[in-house]
Amino acid sequence: RLAGAHACVIGIGGVGSWVAEALARSGVGRLTLIDLDHVAESNINRQAHALEDTLGMAKVGAMAARIAGIDPHCRVTTIEDFLTPENAGALLQGYDLVIDAIDNVRAKVAIALTCTQRRIPLVMAGGAGGKRDPARIGADDLARTEQDPLLAKVRARLRKEHGFTRDPRKKFGIEAVFSNEPLRFPEVDACDAAHPGAASAPQGLACAGYGSSMAVTASVGLLCAARALEHLLREAEAPARGATPEPSA
């Protein structure tokens, strides 16, 4: 069942790289990976494809090479581009399921709209930065997420600009993976790269943003993959459940 499935992973970073690896290791037969970023030294703490010998490579290329070493039979298509509202319609077609692992609000809204219109199952990852406790990660409808500013902005735009329900009792029909842990801000002077001597720090290292923990980013990715696999298996089983049984001899 999974060998015949085609899943698309958008964003091959701290969350999406683990999604892609989990789907490949679980036997999904075809993957399309979308990202324009390249592997940087700051990615090594949390991204599956980030190694000393992949620095500078396109993330989709590094991930495809890693998957080839895991399952040579998995067909991987790489798209070196950022998904935007302008190209979402062209890029999001022909998939059995899409996993959104990016952190751009406009792009996430475009993904939600396109997948909803085309009836493509979607699993949307929330923000993983500023979180420490992977036990606080769960899945629910996008209309019901908590403590996730990224998903809250996506939800607000879908309601205000695109007519999604405002009724708290109703769902959007989009599964979201998120942590209900309150955001934690970095401690003052927590990173040497923030000091006056930061110019001497290795290229690609920075401490902007909330900071992230591999235990959390990978856990978000693995739960996204688990929910995606459940969707794919459910869809594969649906015709069998509705089929007319063969007459007995």
From TrEMBL:
GO terms for biological process: cyclic threonylcarbamoyladenosine biosynthetic process. InterPro entries: ThiF/MoeB/HesA (IPR045886), ThiF_NAD_FAD-bd (IPR000594), Ubiquitin-activating_enz (IPR035985). Pfam families: ThiF. Residues 2-236 form the THIF-type NAD/FAD binding fold domain. One of its GO terms (molecular function) is tRNA threonylcarbamoyladenosine dehydratase. PANTHER family: TRNA THREONYLCARBAMOYLADENOSINE DEHYDRATASE. This is UBA/THIF-type NAD/FAD binding protein. It comes from Thauera phenylacetica B4P.
